[in-house]
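subagent[fold] <- orchestrator: predict structure for attached chain, return tokens only, no commentary.
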Amino acid sequence: MNLILIGLRGTGKSTVGKILAARLNWPFYDTDTIVQDRAGLTIKELFEQKGEPEFRRLESEVVQECAAFDTSVIATGGGAILNETNVSALRRNGFVVHLSANPAELWRRISLDAATNHTRPKLLQSAETGIEELEKLLLSRAAKYAAARHSEVIVEDRTPDEVVERVLVLMKAHKITK
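subagent[fold] -> orchestrator:
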């Protein structure tokens, strides 16, 4: 059984995933990092040069591969849940935890990450501000996240270690063993 972390950009999936993997003594996989490594491009460059459909194709390929692992911690890209095949594969052999926060908190976190503007595409082209982008994105994906997850952890006002502890409690409650 894998531990899968889903959620919008800025929820801390990679940070929390690395800590969880160390605590569980499981390997950690970040699907966005794997996609970038295979493409030889940042996600932003991939979107700009080859388009979102090519990114989503590569993302789905990587998600399918990672979902077939066992006893791994997997952080997915924020949009991986848009593909039903991805969701089915992740849920088949995984406990899916949705990390969530309100748009203002997500924007605060994203704004503090200097690298994100260089490596990640704009979330939505139709938004005026980052918070507006996140509000629209959250609204458009809320049902997909709800359908994909087994459980949810709200990350605002929690340190990464506190989020890790909450996820470990949920794993124990759902009888997910190390």
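orchestrator: received. Logging for downstream: The CA atoms of residues 61 and 99 lie 23 Å apart. Residues 2-172 form a domain with the Rossmann fold fold (CATH 3.40.50.300).
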